[in-house]
Structure formats: structure tokens, C-alpha cells
Amino acid sequence: MSGALLVCGTHSDAGKSVVVAGICRWLAREGVRVAPFKAQNMALNSFVTREGAEIGRAQAAQAAAARVEPEAAMNPVLLKPSAGERTQVVVLGRPYATASAASYQDMKPELLPVVLGALEGLRRRFEAVVCEGAGSPAEINLRESDLANMGLAQAAGLPVVLVGDIDRGGLFASLYGTLALLSPRDRELVRGFVVNKFRGDAAILAPGLAELSRRTGRPFLGTLPFAPGIGLDGEDSLALREAGEGAPGGDVLRVAVVRLGRMSNFTDLDPLLFEPGVAVRFTRSAAEVLDADLAVVPGTKATVEDLGGLRAAGLDRALAARARRGLPTLGLCGGYQMLGRRIVDGVEGEVPEAEGLGLLPVETVFEPEKVLARPSGRAPLFGDEEVSGYEIHHGRTARLGGEPLFVTREGGGEGCRVGAVLGTSWHGVLECDGFRRALLGWVAGVRGLGWEPGDFSFAALREERLERLGDLVAEHLDRDALLGIMEGAGRREGAGALP
User: Fold this and answer.
1) Number of domains in the chain
2) Which residues carry out catalysis?
3) In terms of domains, do 226 and 252 share one?
4) What range(s) does the CobQ/CobB/MinD/ParA nucleotide binding domain occupy (predicted)?
């Protein structure tokens, strides 16, 4: 086959990402060489490709669904909200500019050729490209300079499928209203609807679907059932999940994750959500942080600003009390920097220098060039387990004492440990099953708990979730209609008007 499709949603978190991933996995299983694409993504959860490019974490997961290696062209523009009202603009995997909301709108005309070039390159190399929109295509205040929704569809001749989330209510009004707010020219590109997150009696839903199809002239391509636990890596705080399950006959490890204002790459904690006998809570409560078996200070896109917020909430005192009592604490990337003595930031924040929490003997100096890498090594302090991850940071952190947490493949030291306080610049290390279990076993030992690790592979679990997404598409969407839309022309005569 040869074709492309743009999946839009009535609002953020309607299910665009999972629908794109499901279609990618279904097509890949059918032997189609397929790639995902999102022209413009706003996300603080990002990923580093093998060539050292930064893209949205969801696009990396969609590439895994498509069974291809993620690359910069799959997410040519990534927006990362930073301190104050500023946003870092990442283009083709590299920092490009820092912009306000207004100045970014002025930047879009120069980014459109980059977006279209990336998409065209994918279409030349793959048989199918499944594109994901951003937010809603009915954001009429942004339509003139739109890069990701109907502006992209018009420029690239893409047919559009509109996804609505029935679980939130108001499905029919959302679908009809979105279509009604589009211009007649844009409306012609919308070829059908998909219902997402349905639970209930399909017979009761059917008359509404038929009536909306009659009023709009668009078919429903299928109804995807509510399927908890199979979502992709989240893009923003709307996707935060918490979990906890007691292990049979064992104790529960309580993990408190400090909820920062510009928290980034909180997907680092995803493996803990599936570990039996581990309860994870994202919190701003100093009492909960002090009481937890393991406290985690995650990454952030505004290290100094979030450090100030942490202090204002009294969390600095809770973390200091944990260190005095020998209670395990882990800092990841920006969280690691906060645990140190000093942060010099002339790049991301508005405050040039700040005193850290002083719990680790490290100092961080920010540089304009961002570190983007895929390091690996071992953890000599935790059974010498193999560990790998990825780095995304402007800060260069120097260890002035303590022990390195990891030894790199090249023989260097990375991260720091003093007593029960640990820190690392590497994201994704908890996905390494051996290291994660060794770390949690150490926490249980420090706390005197009878916790037993699980035996699942996180990589296998992620693959199983992608397979389930492919199953949902194969079983609940009209595959022939979907293929026809992808292979046919984007515009359909007579489809623009609404009664």
C-alpha cells in the first residue's frame, strides 16, 4: 500500500496517541512498513534516539508499535515549557530557540517547510505514515499558522479521522462542534469518526452514531472499548498514574514522588507502577515524602524555579530529615541537581544561581549545548547489575565526593551516592529489571520490610501493551474503510457542508 492519515482528537487526551500506535501495530503485523509522525508536540516527556536527537516520548512508543527505530523526522518540532512563560523549541531533535507563546506563532512560517520536509521524507521511505494531531483541530484562534492539524492536512493532502472520548461525556456535541467550527475547505478533509473509551451497551449507542452520521455525512469507523492500563508513555501531567498492589504475603513499599511544577520525564517511574508490592504516589505533601519508604525527586525543565517551589512547600526540610534518618532518596536528572550543593543556570531559568539542598556533594553548571546521549554501564553498589538509559540536560554535574552510582562502559563514574541519598542524570534506569529490583530490595532492607520482587520484564510488558492496542484496532475498527481512506485522496467532494 501507499498512503497516509492524520488522526485528530476533539481535545487533548482524547486518545490520539494510542489510536495512532494501535493503527501502526496493526499495519506492521499486516506486513506494511509504517511510521508514526507528529509535526508539533508539546511535552516534557521526551526520548533520545540512537543518533542523539530528542523527540516526544509518545512518538518513540509509536515507533516501537510500528516496529521501527525512532528518529527525529517522526517529531520535527518539540515544545518544552520552561521557567516563567518561556518554551524551548526543539527542531529535528536539537534546541532551536527559546520562545514566548506570541513569538512562537511568528516562528511557525519558517518551521512549516521543516515539518513538510520531514513528513515527505518519511512518506518516501515508508509505505504508510500515520500522523497524530495536537490538541484539537477546532482551535480556531491558531488555525492561520497551524502546523499540526488542519494546516498540516491541507499542506500535505492528508485525510483526517476525528477521535472522540466518550468516557468524558458530550461525545456527539464534541464531534459535531469540532466539525462545525472548521472551515468548509478543512471540513472536506475529515473522512470519518472514531469513538474511544466506550463502556456499556453498544445497542444503546448505535442510534446516536447513526444520527450523527446522517447529520454530518461522515461514517463512524468503529468504537474502541475502554481498556485501562494500555496507554502509551504520557506526554503531560494529564497522564499521571498512581498504582499500588500488595504482594501476596509480603509488605508494600511506599514510593513518594515529588510533584514538581515543570516535572519532566515522569515516565521514569512507570516501571514501579507495575512492580507487585510497590505503591507509587505523586505528591506535594512534606508529610508523605517524609513517611515514604523511598522518596524520588524527578526531572524538571525548570530546575531552579522548581527548587524554589519545593522549598516553599517545606519539602526541603522533609528531604533533609530523610537524609539524617538514613531513609532512601533518589534524584533523577533535575532532581539529582537539586540534591546537590549549587546550581549555576544561565540557560533555562531566570535566576542565574541557586543553592541546592546540600544532600549530595555535587555542583551543576548549565551550558547552552544540550547533552543528548544513550549511555550504559553497571551499578556496582547494587549487585553490579547492567544499566542503561538516556540523557537530556543542559546541566553538567560534577561529583566532588561520595561514590559514583554507576560505572559507564568507558570506565567513568556517573551519579552519586552518600548514605541513603542517590542521584543520577540518566533517565530510564528503572526500566532495567535487574537494577530496579536490586534498588527496591535495598530500600526494603533499609526499611526492614519483607518485600519480594516480581519477575516480569518491563520491556515485555510494554510490548504486550502495544500488541493489545493492535488487537483493539483489528477487532473494533473498520479496517477496509481505514485502508481506503489512507490510500485515497484527502479531499472528498460534497463532504464540506453541515445541515
Assistant:
1) 2
2) 333, 427
3) no
4) 6-228
